[in-house]
């Protein structure tokens, strides 16, 4: 008889636990205010893979950037370069410091362009602007040089 009672107690405890957990979960979801649509929107993919030769639903960031026309050197600097070049992170030449730029300028502009496009030391390729065209990179370098004399 005691084994039958233990079995009933276990089953009853399990049922009460499941019912209590379900009640807690449903009240939590409604308390947070997340409907199934809210959850679907929250966990939706943030991008799509576009295969060359197939039609894509969303334009790439590079294509969108190119449609807006080239960004000015100042705009590129302010958005992508300032984090390192304003304070000299990891030896980056600082905007406004002619002495920081002098040895780099001595190597020629082509060297500056190559370093900016391919990366150098801690600087990643194209700085932090993967969508910048070569012309925009050049404009950013010219902006930094013009403001570091």
From TrEMBL:
SUPFAM superfamilies: Cytochrome c. It comes from the Bacteria. One of its GO terms (molecular function) is iron ion binding. Pfam families: Cytochrome_CBB3 (PF13442). Keywords: Electron transport, Heme, Iron, Metal-binding, Signal, Transport. Residues 68-148 form the Cytochrome c domain. Residues 1-31 form the signal peptide. This is Cytochrome c5. It comes from Marinomonas aquimarina. The lineage of its organism: Bacteria, Pseudomonadati, Pseudomonadota, Gammaproteobacteria, Oceanospirillales.
